[in-house]
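User: Quick sanity check before I run a bigger batch. Here is a single chain. Can you write out its predicted 3D structure?
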Amino acid sequence: MSLNHFGLKRHQTLSLTLPIEMPPFTHSQMPILIAQRLAPSNPSYNMAFSMVFAAKLCPETFQAAWRRVIEANASLRTVVDGSQGIGSPVLRPVSDYETQVFDLEDSPNPESEFQRWSEERARSPLPLDRPLVESALFDFGDGRTAWYLNQHHLLCDAWSTALLYRQVGEEYAALVDETSRPTPLVDYTLVTQNLLAKSRPKARRVAQEHWQERIQGHRLVSLYGRPCTATGGGCTRLSLSLDAKASTALARLASEKGFVSLSGDLSLFAVFATLITSWISRISGLTQISIDAPAGGRTTPESKRAL
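Assistant: Done. Predicted structure follows.
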């Protein structure tokens, strides 16, 4: 089914100068940007979701809620200026991010039509110099409403997608009930600016000191490229499928004394780190093994509320 069937309008390229100074793309964003540059027609970095709600949503109210979130988060309006080098972040105007609304009341099977549209739309890559967030609302005409949300992975991860979903819902509820607006999310562009301004020199120095200390008196384990010196014996490879039952057992183990840590994720990390160090010891003969695991992501309360 052609996208033009739904009357979609192509985005127009606009240039806009805003007073917000955009921080450079992060280390985590750069590989995604480079990969998309190398394969511009590949939609692998589309994070597309199609959701059907058992409720009739008001399109105007939803659009207003969506606009509030877009206005409050410059990170959602980030696009790539490719005029120099691999690209730098710039902002597009809020008006480029209106939620498209489609009426499928006369369709014999609105849910199937919505699903076909969503799948076709998700197969189209989001051009880096145009809006990297898409929103479309579909009225099924039977008391149900569907929402199509697509974001480029350059701008978001699973955590921020959940934050965005929740924030749009809270803004919608506040408009319907005429109550005070929910607590705003933290704009990640500001989080990044604060980190760059306050901690970049210190973080670099601390990291260098850490790794210099770690390599003193240690040696890397050479796991590959060595000739086999074994003259006998044998081994059997066992495969364990981490199905629902095994995963539940691991989660239970991770909560027991001896494994429980600050969080469930860290507890599971301890379990798998134990397994991998046992394996390294088995194949290398070493009895003292250390693993340095860099931690990243959302390490502060501020970043946990950032899109």
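The mean pLDDT is 83.

User: Great, the batch can go ahead then.
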